[in-house]
Amino acid sequence: MVQTVFIKHLSEHIGETIMIQGWLHTKRSSGKVAFLQLRDGTGFVQGVVTKAEVSEEIFARAIALTQESSLRVTGTVVKDERAPSGVELQIQDVEVVYLTHDYPITPKEHGVDFLLDHRHLWIRGPRQRAILKIRAEIIKAIRSFLDERDFTQVDPPILTPSSCEGTTTLFHTQYFDRDAYLTQSGQLYMEAAAMALGRVYSFGPTFRAEKSKTRRHLIEFWMIEPEMAYTTHEESLVIQEQLVAYIIQHVLTHCAIELKTLGRDLTKLQQVIAPFPRISYDEAITLLQKDGHEIQWGEDFGAPHEAAIVEHFSRPVFIERFPTTIKAFYMKPDPARPEVVLCADLLAPEGYGEIIGGSQRIDDPDLLAARFAEHELPEEAYAWYMDLRKYGSVPHSGFGLGLERTVAWICGLEHVRETIPFPRLLYRLYP
């Protein structure tokens, strides 16, 4: 019996005759040789069929193969330094599993709308596969980092009775005889979990009903939200920068082929070493004003402002202590300066903007009650959240990392729509 091997492991079988089960990505041929670009989900490899070395029937099968036909091929693995994987396959047999006709995505250029309409097929291409593999490794790195540091994963609900941040960007649904919403963050529930388990994190989908079409926005996206009891704002920042540096090193180590496929400039990623630079909101405003931006203290930053700020840094940069009036109700004011809160946004370099937002949370029940009143939040809806302050309140902090924006930055992508298998955009719910 010939052993079936995944393409990613072919370099371990040089000189051996093995079988690959996969699909034909592309093909070129002359009268005497056919070059088959094969894929199996784990990678790509070139298979060579030489007419003089196989039967007429096998060569005819190879010549007749069409793009994305499924097949099994048997051949000998040989070393080839020119190949991305370092090997190629000298094919001895071709078994057609299914012969495809009129595959819609051809090597020619296609428009974005066409490709998104065929996203279920588009993800088969080398570029899209590389992005999704890097996404998977980023997730693996995040889980490893947190699990190794005594965090426990907790899964908050997706259907919630109220908003986390008191905004109007919520997807409403009917929950039997009452109103409910798709979650925009699991943070409040993670605070409850932190009071039970100490260090926790959630990893799951979140939803924002923002009518935005920018290159950084999705309607459905994934968030990693750690929450930590007995943790100050400063301590949280250290964990955040260590996490991001860990992710980068993991991807550089495990995704060399994928990064090469994307043409990513590795020198920019190699500079991402903790600790990261930090500036205050005040300093950021001054910097923007010197650069000619018309922005005043008390205004929030948009994408152009974030892009301008990171031009001054080669690594991710923290912006700390935003005005209380533009941040969420649960953020703890700076005791030395109550008009700002103990929070920070982490901006990725190269214009990718905010990838992490975090803060120390209010732990004083009286102050939290005042915030409910200021933000006109119904106390009955947040009674359980107030209980966390009434029964054993402690200093605690947390943050949320947006997975798709992180993937876009690490991969060097123009738009987040390529960072998730099936993007949900303002005018797109198919496929």
TrEMBL record:
Gene3D superfamilies listed in its UniProt record: Bira Bifunctional Protein, Domain 2, Nucleic acid-binding proteins
CDD domains in the record: AsxRS_core
Enzyme Commission no: 6.1.1.22
Pfam families per UniProt: tRNA-synt_2, tRNA_anti-codon
GO biological process: asparaginyl-tRNA aminoacylation
GO MF term (any one): transferase activity
Record domain Aminoacyl-transfer RNA synthetases class-II family profile: where: 132-431
Statement: the UniProt record of this protein carries the keyword rRNA-binding: no
Signal sequence, renumbered to the chain: none
Catalytic activity: tRNA(Asn) + L-asparagine + ATP = L-asparaginyl-tRNA(Asn) + AMP + diphosphate + H(+)
Superkingdom of source: Bacteria
Subcellular location: Cytoplasm
GO CC entries: cytoplasm
PANTHER family, per database record: ASPARAGINE--TRNA LIGASE, MITOCHONDRIAL-RELATED (PTHR22594:SF34), ASPARTYL/LYSYL-TRNA SYNTHETASE (PTHR22594)
Assembly, per entry: Homodimer.
HAMAP family, alphabetized: Asn_tRNA_synth (MF_00534)
Family: Belongs to the class-II aminoacyl-tRNA synthetase family.
Name of protein: Asparagine--tRNA ligase
Source organism: Sulfoacidibacillus thermotolerans
Organism ancestry: Bacteria, Bacillati, Bacillota, Bacilli, Bacillales
